[in-house]
């Protein structure tokens, strides 16, 4: 379980391109999961959003994980790698060890997961989601990679908020455009 640097400039370029060329949040996050899984040579990746009401994580996108694993049960913030929800990254280098804070360790083992890196997705100092990377073998994430992954999670958070804002503005513009069009048409018909 040697520590090696896996996050390189090519991964940053791929993530940046995927974000820059997508207005659809679902497509963008699914593409990011695929890119990170392939670029890091890991088992899978998932991006979750935090439901502030239920305090549970909801899957936004994933790659490399089975539907059975993704639907194993609710991911509760106090029980599912809690350090992440305090704004700190957490790495479970080997889920075979005890006291790792994993909510569903048996399901992870059945899925073929040996290690998990869990990174908070933060926007304006609030955790809005989680980026999780799943490895098929024990994985000691280097300090440099952990820092790089935190930056990537921050970029994903910005992209998520920007995409939501962009789509909301376009939806409002469409409704307003349709409303003004109807009003202009009805006024023109009264003359």
Question: Any overview of this molecule?
Answer:
The model has no long low-confidence stretch (mean pLDDT 84). 46% of the residues lie in helices and 23% in strands. It has 191 residues and is α+β, with helices and mostly antiparallel strands. A 6-stranded antiparallel sheet has the order 4-3-2-7-6-5. A two-stranded parallel ribbon has the order 1-8. It has one domain (9-180): GAF domain (Beta-Lactamase, 2-Layer Sandwich), CATH 3.30.450. Helix 1 runs antiparallel to helix 2 (25-40) and helix 1 (9-20) packs parallel to helix 5. The chain is globular and about 65 Å long. InterPro entries: GAF (IPR003018), GAF-like_dom_sf (IPR029016). It comes from Desulfosarcina ovata subsp. sediminis. It holds the Pfam family GAF. This is GAF domain-containing protein. Residues 20-170 form the GAF domain.
Please supply descriptive tags for the structure shown above.
two-stranded parallel sheet, single chain, 191 residues, 46% helix, Beta-Lactamase
Summarize the structure.
With 191 residues, this protein is of the alpha+beta class.
Structural class: alpha+beta
- Overall mean pLDDT stands at 84
Straight-line distance between termini = 80 Å
The CATH architecture: 2-Layer Sandwich
Question: What's the SSE blueprint?
Answer:
Layout: E1 3-4, H1 9-20, H2 25-40, E2 44-51, E3 56-63, H3 67-70, E4 75-76, E5 90-92, H4 105-111, E6 115-123, E7 126-135, E8 140-141, H5 143-190
Parallel strand pairs: 1-8
Antiparallel strand pairs: 2-3, 2-7, 3-4, 5-6, 6-7
Helix pairs in contact: 1-2, 1-5
